[in-house]
Amino acid sequence: MLMRLQDALNRDDLIEQMLLHCNPITSFSEQVQSTKSINFIVGYNSSPNSHTALDISLLIAHQTRLATKSHVIVQAVYVLEEYKINDFFDVLPTQDFKTSESFESRLSYCPINLPSTNVQTPVITQTNKFAQAEHILWQARCLAEEWQSYFKAHLRFGCVVDELKKVVASEAATVLFLGCKSANHPIVQQLGSHFPCAIIGIPTCIDEE
Question: Model pTM greater than 0.90?
């Protein structure tokens, strides 16, 4: 999939730049052949780099759908790191999010990992941070709608690395997209060498053009 992107951009160095971690057990092509659904997870916080990562994931998802006829879901994960239980005063009712033909959204409004999307629990949140998080995920949803992509949005609380690992595991992710330009980035390093799926970053050549 990176080769197709590389050819489309007339570059010969994208794979080396963007592939930050490769799963030694299962290749992307093997995963495509062995499953009917492909899950792309994107670490998203509305920064320019994470927005680029989301753009790339949606482009590759579109190309993959055309080439393989597989069902590809792009999932954006936004993590609120500054979470203290004493800061959360406002209790909001649980909200249900419906799906459409080309757009699927699921928000996990809970300070811990939800065991099921059907669990009905009250939502405890700090209003300002919650509103900002909703806006950030709304931006991601709008971009996904432009690509007519199947999409899920996760709002998580805690450590970025820990929450990314949880979502990757629970969604059986095929690829994790990050707005990182090097395998030496702290987040990539903390995810570890035994991370279960490939990690794709953004090319450094973007700065040069």
Answer: no
